[in-house]
């Protein structure tokens, strides 16, 4: 019984330290050639997915010399934050539903086996992360330079336009009108 209590306390402590739960989307703000974008991954904690699941993050990576889907460690990824940005709009857009742990696990297993060819615009890390969490593949890169280039074949144009409008309206004011030219 004592061991069980210690394990529960350890799990609670880990969750309190990083605030993440299984299936959360992590975003990693990045810049490449002066273009801003966010890299995305799914937090898996200490859950194992076979021999190649060494890490607490499932994401697209180029570690094997080709862009594939695999596991990495948050501690090696630099600045990051939890970014379940579609959670706030689940009622407004019924096609988005946070998967159960079983559904998220099944999607990770599916993509681990069949990641498909990486596409910067139409099959990127954000498409992967939103598919794993919500069951719908979407990449918006909201507020980033790459925002206008993302291709989203799984969502009709009117819904995509509405999603972008809702997210844009929800962005805080940046005060850029006060920035020096």
Assembly state: single chain
Low-confidence stretches: 5-17, 173-181
Number of strands: 5
Identify the overall geometry: globular
Mean pLDDT: 79
Summarize the SSE layout with pairings.
Blueprint: H1 2-18, E1 25-32, E2 35-43, E3 57-61, E4 68-72, E5 81-82, H2 101-113, H3 125-134, H4 157-170
Antiparallel strand pairs: 1-2, 1-5, 2-3, 3-4
Protein model, in words:
The chain has a five-stranded antiparallel sheet with strand order 4-3-2-1-5, covered by helices on one side. The longest helix is centred in the first third of the chain and has 17 residues, at 2-18. The protein has helices at 2-18, 101-113, 125-134, 157-170; strands at 25-32, 35-43, 57-61, 68-72, 81-82. With 181 residues, the chain is α+β, with helices and mostly antiparallel strands. The protein is built from four helices and five strands; from the N terminus they run αβββββααα. The protein starts with a helix and ends in an 11-residue tail after the last helix. The chain is globular. Helices cover 30% and strands 16% of the residues. Helix 2 runs antiparallel to helix 3 (125-134).
Keywords:
five-stranded antiparallel sheet, globular, about 30% helix, about 180 residues, alpha+beta, disordered C terminus
